[in-house]
Amino acid sequence: MDAKEEANYGHAAGNEITCTAAVAWGPGQAFSIQQIRVLPPQKLEVRIKILLTSICHTDLSAWQGQNESQRMYPRILGHEASGVVESVGEGVEDIEEGDHVLTIFNGECGECTYCKSKTTNLCAKFRVDPLRSLMRNDGKTRFLTQDGKPIYHFLNTSTFSEYTVMDSACVVKINPKAPLNTMTLLSCCLSTGFGSVVNTANIHQGSTVAVFGLGAVGLAVILGAKARGASTIIGIDINDDKRIKGETLGMTHFINPRDLKTSLNEKIRAMTKGGVDFSFECAGNLDVLREAFLSTHDGWGLTVLLGIHSTPRMLPLHPMELFDGRTITGSVFGGLKGKTQLPLLVNQFMNMEGLKLEEFITHELPFNKIDQAFELLIHGKSLRCLLHL
User: Fold this and answer.
1) Residue 311 in domain
2) Are 238 and 165 contained in the same domain?
3) Which of 182, 138, 144, 188 has the alpha carbon at shortest distance from 163?
4) Is 177 found in the same domain as 61?
5) SUPFAM superfamilies in the record, alphabetically (predicted)?
6) CATH number, residue 243
7) Which domain holds residue 241?
8) Looking at the structure, do residues 318 and 383 belong to the same domain, yes or no?
9) Is residue 48 part of a domain?
10) Could you confirm whether 112 is annotated as catalytic?
């Protein structure tokens, strides 16, 4: 059975589907692996058979309910995934049944002033929005419990389900020959980290780089820095186990801040004769962000913020510190326009040798072991755990 036949097996476009999903019913509660109803896609929507999904810290913080304003239950989390298109709604022209696709949380409608701008990858309608839990067409969900109660959406995607319905602006068709196990990670961590190096920072040959936090996004930054020819790539993490993985991907130096007798930024400035050209904050910690900012060279140093930070704390900078020539910026989805640029990145990754993308996948489990996958992430034992649906 080929991919298209598999996606449509037993289903007819336009019909409701019953399938298995992992439903979050409250902050920190064990996922409920249960049968749900998935409605057909409406205008400019796509229904996808999810084949692989993985877990990142954004899913973890949402499941734990760390930000009270973003709590909404019951909800289907998950946003990093690959799959096959099962059916499309009215008006969808760039995607067909049977296409191999990636899900993206930061969509691209292609028509708004943001999408037409060359200076941003945000979209007026479909940018990442953790507060949104309903479909835009009608303000309703496409997920229902068996007795008809709504189950809410998450980050434009909701991939912890055998089938999901998404706006077509958040669905990216990719090369059918691309290996879905590694390409799945391009729907979040690899694109975010690698893209922030290439697009946001645009680092150059011989640059010096410091990466704060060696989770999957931080390691993707290392991958991008090596590909761009950085001369020095310093990885910083409190977990010594990250050293080997970082060195495998191109890291040249490793620092565990707990081993230092001086401040971290002072150590880095001493190592690099004044500071690095670029630093990337991937930890979601404001104290770390300050160290990253001060570790860059005055006059030209750039800090790229990639970590997710909770409120209400604000930037740990004094405005006058910006007069020293250091700058700081954020990066969403690595500055990539998902619909137009992600397929090109997939092809680029397929043709580049020595990327070692498989190094990011530390575990693979069946979907019903999702609680175990979260435990691995909580205890720092996994980078990316692929769940097979």
Assistant:
1) yes
2) no
3) 144
4) yes
5) GroES-like, NAD(P)-binding Rossmann-fold domains
6) 3.40.50.720
7) 193-331
8) no
9) yes
10) yes
Is residue 262 annotated as part of the catalytic site, yes or no? no
Angle CA 178–225–107, to nearest 5: 50
Q: What is the dihedral of CA 121, 320, 208, 260, to 10 degrees?
A: -120
Query: How many residues can be counted in the chain?
Result: 389
Q: 258 an active-site residue?
A: no
Q: Is position 384 annotated as part of the catalytic site?
A: yes
33 and 181 inside one domain: yes
DSSP string, 56-100: -HHHHHHHHT-SGGG--SSB----EEEEEEEEE-TT--S--TT-E
Residues 149 and 222 in one domain: no
The catalytic position among 100, 303, 384, 385 is 384
Tens digits of residue pLDDT in 102-137 = 999 999 999 999 999 999 999 999 999 988 999 999
The one catalytic residue in 45, 80, 281, 291 is: 80
Q: Is 123 a catalytic residue?
A: yes
| 37, 210, 282 from 244: Cα distances, Å | 44, 16, 18
Domain match, 167 and 24 both: yes
Given the residues 112, 309, 321, 362, the one annotated as active site: 112
